[in-house]
Amino acid sequence: MTNALIRRLDEYTPLTGADRDELAHLCMQSTRLVQAKRDLIREGDAPRVIYVILDGWAAHYRTLANGRRQIVDFAIPGDLCDLNLFILDRMDHSISAITRLKVAEVRRELLHRVVTNFPNITTALWWAELVSKSIHREWIVNVGQRSASERVAHLFCEMFLRLESVGLTNGFSCDFPLTQNDIAETTGLTAVHVNRTIQELRRRGLIVLERQRLTVPDMLALQDASLFNPNYLHLRRLNQHTDAGRHAQKGRDRQGR
Amino acid sequence: MTNALIRRLDEYTPLTGADRDELAHLCMQSTRLVQAKRDLIREGDAPRVIYVILDGWAAHYRTLANGRRQIVDFAIPGDLCDLNLFILDRMDHSISAITRLKVAEVRRELLHRVVTNFPNITTALWWAELVSKSIHREWIVNVGQRSASERVAHLFCEMFLRLESVGLTNGFSCDFPLTQNDIAETTGLTAVHVNRTIQELRRRGLIVLERQRLTVPDMLALQDASLFNPNYLHLRRLNQHTDAGRHAQKGRDRQGR
DNA sequence: CGTTCAGTTGACCATGATCAAGAGTGGTGG
DNA sequence: CCACCACTCTTGATCATGGTCAACTGAACG
């Protein structure tokens, strides 16, 4: 299987052979395994390296003074954990491993060298950064405007498509390692209510979720149930079932459907 | 009064005289006035210029299929309205004028020239982008984990400090042009409940809000009431009342308090 | 001077929170 | 291999925060 970072960046900018080689090299310099539930880095820390997720899931989160925790994004293979390092001195949030994690640690100088010599890669990193910001916006909408079942269904839609874009789905299924408590902390609901909500989605035939595996038999139906519009993910290649047709993306060439 | 963009970017990177001149020049090339409540740009549009807010407030928002609207950020003087233009082809959200607005329109080529010739400015733009992303994260936390009164109070704290950092406060007061309906659309509450919440904050003596003017007699008290921690704004110079002391910012040199 | 929009109030309702207890599952060590 | 522990999931009963609907007030502005 090809490197998830390459796969992901290539989603946006067609990369040359040299670009790919450079990225592959970058990810092999120094890798690290992290146990599930361990923090990769904590709020307040000064980041020393940039992490690239090679395998597993991580969560970006913030903790409030009263102890409550809010997950603000997930990182899956191919995702970078913040370019913060280049600019801001301190982490303003924490990152922890959901599953056992394999990450590449990229030193600042190394990435800097790449950025100055490989313009395609620079553009692609910018793109990844802006897409991640767009995802943040959608999460604000999610917790602000959607009902419990819409929120949870929306999360399933998003993660399925993101996994698909890096080749981590199998037909209608994908690994889904989140506990109901994790889902609660991302949707602003309680774990008890997430449980009831998931049962409702199961009853309606929208998802199958068992033993860390998610199946979405009808993606369009799930999207309808969650007011999901894939545009915010800025995926170039939308798959058959991702509903590229319904949400007008004026003037952009489309495949599928 | 000095240009708000310069003031804002200088907050991060000390700019040279040449940097300042260039920014001033950039903002004077082409300016435009926008009526209150008009959209500056809409979701799906291909942006042609980058906007810099020179005067007034704007709102970034998304609309759902069911018509509900969520404001995902405000733009105040000195803020840039998305560097999207450089990378992503379509707007994934809309921006509309809260008040009458004065904006600078910066053409892509022009900004590109600046970016290649003025490294300080490039760094500062990156910084602005990352801070704006951090603000997005905090908004997720806000709607996800805080109670109604905490959410509304948090918004007051944030906007007050952001205005202060570009010199738009007067002692304990600042202009505050949002309607209760606007506040509802940013906090994920209803306008009716925002009304009751604001009355509660008034009763508790935390804010004075009348005729578009906000006064915060005791910023620390308001911060306590909203679980507010200013770190996420990445302000270099925290003012006296911004509570730099309580929230440990390890190893960072601080002023005030 | 009337029209419009923002703010206010009241009555009632519903979504989701809280508290508590129990069932399934997996991993660990005796 | 089994007993135990911890964690995740599940269910029920009750509660509360904030939503909905509707009417009214007041200020701003043409």
What does this structure look like?
With 257 residues, chain A is α+β, with helices and mostly antiparallel strands. Chain A folds into 2 domains: 131 residues, Jelly Rolls (Sandwich), CATH 2.60.120.10; 97 residues, Arc Repressor Mutant, subunit A (Orthogonal Bundle). The first copy, chain A, has 8 helices and 12 strands. In chain A, the strands form 3 sheets. Chain A has a 4-stranded antiparallel sheet. In chain A, strands 2-7-4-5 form a 4-stranded antiparallel sheet. Chain A has a 4-stranded antiparallel sheet with strand order 9-10-12-11. In chain A, a hairpin with a 2-residue loop joins strand 11 and strand 12. In chain A, helix 5 packs across helix 7 and helix 6 crosses helix 7. Chain A is globular, with a radius of gyration of 18 Å. The interface between A and B is large, with 54 and 54 residues. Chain B binds a DNA duplex (30 and 30 nucleotides) through helix 8.
Q: Can I get a quick summary?
A:
The structure is a homodimer of 257-residue chains. With 257 residues, chain A is an alpha+beta fold. Chain A is built from 8 helices and 12 strands.
User: Could you give a short account of the major beta sheet of chain A?
Assistant: 4 strands, antiparallel
CATH superfamily of the largest domain in chain A: Jelly Rolls
Q: What's the assembly state of these chains?
A: homodimer
Question: Which strands sit side by side, in order, in the main sheet of chain A?
Answer: 1-8-3-6
Regarding CATH, which class of the largest domain in chain A? Mainly Beta
For the record, the count of structural domains of chain A works out to 2
Task: State the helix count of chain A.
Answer: 8
What is the CATH topology of the largest domain in chain A? Jelly Rolls
Percentage of β-strand residues of chain A: 15-25%
Name the CATH architecture of the largest domain in chain A: Sandwich
- DSSP, total strands of chain A: 12
